[in-house]
């Protein structure tokens, strides 16, 4: 009887531990140059439009980011941010959208 009670507890603990271990790459877009003003974090898989273009920080943590000069990831990919390295730019950028590859 006690053995059966432990199985759900162990399963729940493993799900909790595995859930906290998952990381995703993040693109942080800033309104102003030098990482100033309002900011937004984009970390969901797939396409996202970028609302701010003053500067950015990229935290590569497993997924790459394909950058587009048009909204809705239209046109040709302009640049790819790496899945395993961080990047940043303190000056304005022209990218209008990102596709995070998951």
TrEMBL record:
Pfam families: MiAMP1. InterPro entries: Antimic/Inh_G_crystallin-like (IPR015791), Antimicrobial_MiAMP1 (IPR015201), G_crystallin-like (IPR011024). Keywords: Signal. The keyword Signal applies. Residues 1-24 form the signal peptide. The keyword Signal applies. This is MiAMP1 family antimicrobial peptide. It comes from Nonomuraea indica.
């Amino acid at each position: 009887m006690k053995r059966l009670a432990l199985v759900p507890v162990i399963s729940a603990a493993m799900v909790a531990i595995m859930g906290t271990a998952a990381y995703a790459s993040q693109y942080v877009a800033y309104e102003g140059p030098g990482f100033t003003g309002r900011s937004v974090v984009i970390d969901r898989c797939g396409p996202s439009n970028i609302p701010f273009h003053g500067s950015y920080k990229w935290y590569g943590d497993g997924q790459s980011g394909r950058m587009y000069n048009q909204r809705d990831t239209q046109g040709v990919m302009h640049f790819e941010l790496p899945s395993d390295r961080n990047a940043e730019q303190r000056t304005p950028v022209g990218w209008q959208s990102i596709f995070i590859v998951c």
